[in-house]
Amino acid sequence: MATIRIHGGNPLYGDVNISGSKNATLPLLAASLLVKGHTVIENVPRIDDIHAMIAMLRALGAKCDFVQDTTLSIDATAISSVSAPYNLVRKMRGSFYVAGALLGRFGEAEVPLPGGCVIGSRPVDFHIQGFKALGAVVQERHGVMHARADKLTGDHIIMDSRYRSVGATVNIMLAAVLAEGVTVIENASREPEVTCCQHFLREAGADIRGVGTDIIVVRGVDELHDATFYSIPDRMEAGTFLAACGAARGELTVRSVIPSHLTAVLSTLQKAGLTVENGPDWVRIAATGRPRAFEVTTAPYPGFPTDLQPNASVLGAVAVGTSIVHETIFDARFNYVDELNRMGADIQLKDSVAIIRGVPRLSGAPVEATDIRAGSALVLAGLAADGYTEIAGAEFLDRGYDGFADKLRSIGVTITSSREAAHNGSRNVWLR
Ligand code: EPU
């Protein structure tokens, strides 16, 4: 298990350049399988989930290489398999996106069912209902989804309005772009990551209307063509750094961001009494004292993102007064709370609501991350705490945050990483 160690209690100062979005770029890589040709994706984050998706594309027969630091070239002309290997799907749920793309292009996909996850039950029933509506015969055998269709035909698909599933919207869209006729997806996700995929598909020749709305209309085309596309910045990474500054104090500017993607996040930070201003592609936050208590409820975009809910709890943990954080998307996304309480936080859970009585200071402790966003919350808590915090399960951070330790160092954080130490050949893992 990888571990990082943070020395907390110091304010953060400086600028952080935000990398490309994990959750926007994963669908782009899957979508490239629909192009019988060459795709270039720019602003690709160098994180483990992207490396796992690249391994998936290669396993299916695509050629896939970084031609520059963050520019990925994909040639999916010759795909040799429609079966996704279990060891890659197991690593990351986002790899289930290859199902829609393979079904759309080849009329066939065999993809292991991704199963449960520590943040809650994460079924793929909406994805499968969508594939069936387009005419696929879908069977689940021995934990694998087999989808087949002689021909996919557009249909009117009404998704569950309570969830507006990101993954199902993308997967159905991928299956529909080469189908015959018109597919309408109602109650679609409006997350920027979904909109990004729509823009990419249009760039490659797909006919998609209603971009960025909850009613998407896809008119099937015969084929897609070569495309070059720049992925969007990661709003979760930006939100993480902003919340970090809110919790640890200081003044921080996140750059290369799209502030309109962060509207709900910025308004929550302002409710917490933090000073926030923004320009066309940057957001600055200043925090001189403790935040004040706030209430926030997670919701599909444009609401407050569930992926930043754990970070909001850390802000509440050091705020003056009692904050309320309500989770509505995933049924088990408070698994970091016991760890925060071990660091001196006072958080009580009542079903899907966290009641957080702010304390003046957290205290560093050994803790363990169980998923990507729980990991980032523990980092934030470590930054706001006295003394050292040692976070086990730091490999989750490498799945989702590009160069996290280096970026934190650049704004004044003392942080050491067992992975970096091992990479540098140090026998003293902590380089104390
Ligand atoms: N749902 C179903 N059936 C389905 C699909 C979803 O019941 O077939 C439910 C889920 O159980 C959940 C809700 O619908 O309660 C929303 O799930 P959604 O499908 O929107 O989530 P996802 O596509 O599996 C993506 C992100 C998550 C992010 C959620 C919500 C990727 C690879 N993952 O997951 O990101 O939390 O949307 O915004 O894009 C992360 O990055 O750490 C992460 C977990």
Brief synopsis:
This protein has helices at 22-31, 48-59, 86-91, 98-106, 125-133, 166-176, 192-203, 235-248, 263-271, 309-317, 337-342, 372-384, 395-400, 404-410, 418-423, and strands at 3-7, 12-17, 38-42, 63-68, 71-75, 108-112, 137-141, 144-148, 156-158, 182-186, 207-209, 215-219, 227-230, 250-255, 275-278, 282-287, 295-297, 322-326, 346-350, 353-357, 362-363, 366-368, 385-386, 388-392, 414-417.
What would the keywords be for this entry?
UDP-n-acetylglucosamine1-carboxyvinyl-transferase, Chain, 15 helices, 2 domains, alpha/beta, globular, 4-stranded mixed β-sheet, 32% helix, binds uridine-diphosphate-2(N-acetylglucosaminyl) butyric acid, 25 strands, disordered C terminus, 26% strand, 432 residues
Structural account:
- The protein is of the alpha/beta class and 432 residues long.
- The protein has two domains: 3-19 and 233-423, UDP-n-acetylglucosamine1-carboxyvinyl-transferase, Chain (Alpha-beta prism), CATH 3.65.10.10; 22-230, UDP-n-acetylglucosamine1-carboxyvinyl-transferase, Chain (Alpha-beta prism).
- 32% of the residues lie in helices and 26% in strands.
- The protein is built from 15 helices and 25 strands.
- The strands form seven sheets. It has a four-stranded mixed sheet.
- Strand 9, helix 6 (166-176) and strand 10 form a beta-alpha-beta unit.
- Helix 8 (235-248) runs parallel beside helix 12 (372-384).
- The radius of gyration is 22 Å and the shape is globular.
- The two termini are 19 Å apart.
- Residues 427-432 have low confidence and may be disordered.
- The structure holds uridine-diphosphate-2(N-acetylglucosaminyl) butyric acid.
- Uridine-diphosphate-2(N-acetylglucosaminyl) butyric acid binds at residues 23, 26, 93-94, 121-127, 163, 165-168, 193, 306-307, 329-330, 372-373, 400.
- Residues 23, 26, 93-94, 121-127, 163, 165-168, 193, 306-307, 329-330, 372-373, 400 line the site of uridine-diphosphate-2(N-acetylglucosaminyl) butyric acid.
